[in-house]
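REQUEST FORM: STRUCTURE PREDICTION
Request ID: SP-0412
Submitted by: Lab K.M.
Chain count: 1
Length (residues): 286
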Amino acid sequence: MNKERIKNFGLGEKMGNELFNISGRVVLITGGTGVLGGSMAEYLLDEGAKVVLLGQTEAKVESKVEQLKKKYPDVMGFAGNVLDKDFLEQVMGSIVKTWGKLDVLINAAGGNMPGAVIGEGQTIFDLKMDDFRKVSELNLDGSVVPSLVFGKLMADQGHGCILNISSMAATRALTRVVGYSVSKAAIDNFTKWMATELALKFGEGLRVNAIAPGFFISNQNRNLLLNEDGSYTERGKTIIANTPMKRFGKADELHGAVHWLISDAASFVTGTIIPIDGGFNAFSGV
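STATUS: Completed
RESULT:
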């Protein structure tokens, strides 16, 4: 959120410079090579933050970091599994050695698997439990484990902000995506639980929040929402019909909420889940 946009919102110059300033903050983004995580990374770098990207695939991490380094010097990346505590602790050591601190953790790693989705012509009784467990592990444990590792560093520092990624599927019964829905519902509860735990036991300098994106086109949901020719699938049409703004979201439309939640402007905000959904969650369909 640049100064010009702050002025447009009617905020004073002092508030703009101080409360919204994230320049120099060290931000770690898991799932940093994905559509949403990668977009957040570029935005935060443009706002002066120092960014660490975590991704599963080494080639993707290297490619993303190389691309960003052409414009931003303060970026580095690591390839590994967000469920691997030893890997995360090694990353933490590198961050502290390089920049001396970690201000923000954004848990953007997540995904889905076909076996945890109820396909056309299937019912809940066709659910593959192995895939269900893997999806739950990726979406829930994939946020819990980094929060424990990097949250401990923040607790020792006395300050830090964790931002989780929830979903419309967490609070609404969206057909088919049962594994994803259940794990994202757990993210909402974990966000509130962790926020309470850290504030009560480690002070007001520790905050945990989440954003709940509506429907954005990503690698995980593209085939569910779009046909090969770019037209909407029947599911895509249903979503648009129930979204008052009548469109899917754009990745950069998450940036304002992310910026606010990780800045001092949200210093009294913790345990919240902010919908960014074009009105989907508010609309009854009537």
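NOTES: The longest strand covers residues 206-213.
Reviewed by: T.R.
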